[in-house]
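Q: What does the predicted 3D structure of Pyruvate dehydrogenase E1 component subunit beta look like?
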Amino acid sequence: MSKVFLFDALREATDEEMERDSSVFVLGEDVGHYGGSYKVTKDLHAKYGDLRVLDTPIAENSFMGMAVGAAITGLRPIVEGMNMSFLLLAFNQISNNAGMLRYTSGGNFQIPLVIRGPGGVGRQLGAEHSQRLESYFQSIPGLKMVACSTPYNAKGLLKSAIRDNNPVIFFEHVLLYNLKENIPDIEYFIPLDKAELVREGSDITILTYSRMRYHVMEAVDILVKDGFNPEVLDLISLKPIDIKSIVISLKKTNRLLIVEECMKTGGIAAEIIAQINDNYFDLLDAPIVRLSSQDIPTPYNGNLEKVTIIHPQQIINSVRMLLR
């Protein structure tokens, strides 16, 4: 076991896959000589050279289109967005090309493409650098979406994503890069379509992902002291949703709380609620509660920014309400 930061776990995964397979390459803004905006590609340029760690101009639609074309020809591109918000400039290439070409080509083309980078609400990054793009991309056919939350799952998920033959959007939270954790020195992989059972419990199921995992666990520590026994699942797979694991948990607890940093309107929680209400409504002993970010551009002001996202006390209050 080695103790590594989350950004180092991502770098290790990238390095191992590039060393194993010469068709894997990285492209994006500042990924080469600078080593990436959060140092995920640090030192890879010196090892692999300009053609496999490719610094691009600030032209997201162009280099995303180039990545899709490279994937069609048999390469395995990893696109790093300096900030995931910037990839909205490549929305057409991600949706109409990366997402749909395998289907519209009649299966003649595969698109083994990973799109990754930092996102989420950071520390006063302003509205255009605090985007949560899960809700933007979840309805696009052909895409997979995963959100890492620990150094361990970050490495295992990224290795799986690089080897997958479909386009994968890989969400990293800007405030989690400096998390540190022991991870195995031996090679391992984590499935792209499975939720992680973080804590077993019997009273209520709490679903979450990414940074909100830590807000949930902070709340759970207090709830346990008060005699509650919550079960916590980290979704990890945002598309497809691992509804099977959610239902297994819900059969035990019969109550569901969803905690996300995504916007409330059209967010991941909205999709889960729809699926549960459509197919598993009889498992519920109480209405589903979702805690989501405010439907407003994230303010630059620090105090206002804090108000837009969910905090542990809100989670505690919601659990107490559902279990009273």
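A (community wiki): The structure tokens above were generated from the sequence. The chain has a mean pLDDT of 95. Residues 2-183 form a domain with the Rossmann fold fold (CATH 3.40.50.970).
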